[in-house]
Amino acid sequence: MRLVDSHCHLHSTDYDDGQESVLERARAAGVDRVVCVGTDLEDSKLAVKFAAEHEGVFATIGAHPHDVRDNDKSAEKLEDIDQLLGLKTPKTVAVGEIGLDYHFKPYSREAQIQLFERQLQIARELDLPIVFHVREAYEDFWPVVDNFKGIRGVLHSFSDGLAALNEGLKRGFYIGINGIVTYRKTPEQAEAFANIPLEKMMLETDAPYLTPSSLHGTVNEPANVGLVFEWAAKHFANMSPADVANTTTKNTEELFNLNARERGFSKSTRKHA
């Protein structure tokens, strides 16, 4: 069975035995593709470079909502964000992770929304799907995305309730699950997780963060997406594990257009060989 880690930060993580060893372990575990997610301009450049240098690795470009902490920085950040347009390569598969996060204070609601809206525009200009990061901000999130008709994407690291799940599904978004599904859950989270349809589910690790509970205390890595898959396979007990693996992999391939991106990258490297 083949799996995809649809969201990790391998490109910017200093693993004790190196990133190459982490990729080898992922492939040995059946995880043959990983998506390295950008969190600001410089991190996105690093993700794009890392993807170009490694088979089966793809990149996203974007600025996390924490990239602006106050209104004074918003204009400066927006100027930087316009440079994201130049980072599209054959292995750039999405704009993200972008969105709204009101968990940590202080934060500027206005600056976050402004940054988010500009990056939604960039996603439309580049015709790329979006990796959404939303925490304690759905009340603002839905009206903003509804102003950008036709966008497509995934709600990364989903851990909210049934109402948010249904709103996301109503808009056609995929739902990204990771090690959080293996933790002790609130009744609201448990209800939402129980109602994620397989045809809209994507598997991720968010490595090096959110290590599954059975490996608590260790640094997360893409190979551990298999533990998220094990949860999903038990959740869909009426289906074969192979069907669950194939469907979640297909969902990621289709949203991010991975097969075409891979072919495009191979053609571009042959041209310059």
CATH architecture: Alpha-Beta Barrel
Per DSSP, the total helix count is 10
How many beta-strand runs? 8
State the low-pLDDT regions, or none: none
Order of helices and strands: EHEHEHEHEHEHEHEHHH
Major sheet: arrangement of strands: 1-2-3-4-5-6-7-8
CATH topology: TIM Barrel
Quickly name the level 1 CATH class.
Alpha Beta
Overall average residue pLDDT: 93
Description:
This protein has 273 residues and is an alpha/beta fold. It has a single domain (3-271), classed as TIM Barrel (Alpha-Beta Barrel). The chain is 44% helix and 16% strand. The chain is built from ten helices and eight strands. The protein has helices at residues 19-28, 41-53, 71-81, 109-126, 138-146, 162-170, 187-194, 225-235, 241-256, 258-271; strands spanning 3-8, 31-36, 57-61, 92-101, 130-135, 153-155, 174-177, 201-203. The protein has an eight-stranded parallel β-sheet. Helix 4 runs parallel beside helix 5 (138-146) and helix 6 runs parallel beside helix 7 (187-194). The two termini are 33 Å apart. The model has no long low-confidence stretch (mean pLDDT 93).
Key attributes of the depicted protein:
alpha/beta; TIM Barrel; eight-stranded parallel β-sheet; 8 strands; 44% helix
Annotate the secondary structure layout:
Elements (H helix, E strand, L loop, with lengths): L2 E6 L10 H10 L2 E6 L4 H13 L3 E5 L9 H11 L10 E10 L7 H18 L3 E6 L2 H9 L6 E3 L6 H9 L3 E4 L9 H8 L6 E3 L21 H11 L5 H16 L1 H14 L2
Parallel strand pairs: 1-2, 2-3, 3-4, 4-5, 5-6, 6-7, 7-8
